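Morning F.,

Quick status update on the modeling queue. The single chain you submitted on Monday has been processed. Sequence for confirmation:
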Amino acid sequence: MTTTLAERGDLSRAARGFLRTESGSAVLLLSAAVVALLWVNLGGGYEEFWHTEFSLRIGDTALTEDLRHWVNDGLMVLFFFSVGLEMSREAVLGELRGARAIAAPALAAVGGLVVPALLFLAFNAGGPAAGAWGIAISTDTAVVIGVLALVGPRCPDQLRVFLLALAIVDDIGAVAAIAFFYTDDVQVTPLLLAGVLFLALLALRYAQFWRTPLYVVIGLVMWLAVLESGVHPSVVGVALGLLVNAYAPRQYDIDQVAVLGRSFLVDPSPQRALATQAAVTEAVSPNERLQLRIQPWSSYVIVPLFVLANAGVPLDGATLAAAASSPLTWGIVVGLTVGKVVGVSAGTWVALRTGIGRVPDTLRWGQLIGGAGLAGIGFTVALFVTDLALDDQALVDQAKIGILAGSLLAGLIGWSIFRFAGERGGQCAPSGLPVLPPRPWRPPS
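Structure tokens below.
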């Protein structure tokens, strides 16, 4: 399927809108982390509050979880649903479309997954926290894009898009790790039911039948089935997001909007208004309509609430001393800082050196390596995996300190690289004019 230049321009504007949303949400996310730390260390009742039980009851059937589990297992499914929507859209219309376009960020993401995990295991292999390697592999898109706006290049658009594509592939790896490595005691019957429901949704998609209430009902039943099976329900969110159709506006739909719009101008009746509204809605894919509705809730409410519920850790002398000598803490810190820089940079170099991948000509090595440093900011998914991988509260506290320290250091490393490489200055070209970089980015021959 081909798209016109106008359609690509619309998609580019949509991508910039998404990035601005992610950048703005980073402030709330970091604020939530600060509030959680203050709540634990200066206030009181943090754990007691999040362990408060909340029940949904229908007749004699009740689903009872504490507030933290409702956030982690319930609301966060919408976050992963938005991740699935973005994966689907990018694969059809955006930066994940085409083998060479995705090869560089994909190999960068693979390097950013494998190298941090290996470094983590170098500290923790054979220890009680060896299974928590998934904490060190994640990249937090919202915070990375927000920090990039503050410390990155003066004109970072191409780097933003590259990091977004990298983060999507990184999310795929993180979700796969959650599904395959952090699931115990699988119950087969509810999992089979969830599989049948997924196939039903797949059939509805290929039949091009889209009715939001039906998808919501089937999705809720899938969530309950997966929750009962023992597999983490985040997988349901991603699966549902991947099923939602994404397509560029079709010329027939645009022409239909024009015809109905003119008829409304001639005779502005309620019937013609409704027909025009329906045609405008149909011209935009369900994927993008849902992203427009869900992304603000995910970025501004759900993720900050998740961080508030999970980032609280006591910072007293005993806890900090234990973290300072903990291989778990150091494995996370080294994985998020050294591992991400080395892995992302090496993966992209391999893609370019072998010729299987490409990047925009405006990107330079200083920007790439600075972006690789920022990719070590792992927050949301890192905290998520901590809750799944560790049961010992002392290890949980050490892991959270490692996440906070590693993410802070990753931001400082990215800023330092941009400063050292001279990528903070320069002038943006006027809109519509090409940017001519003084140092074209090509791997050495």
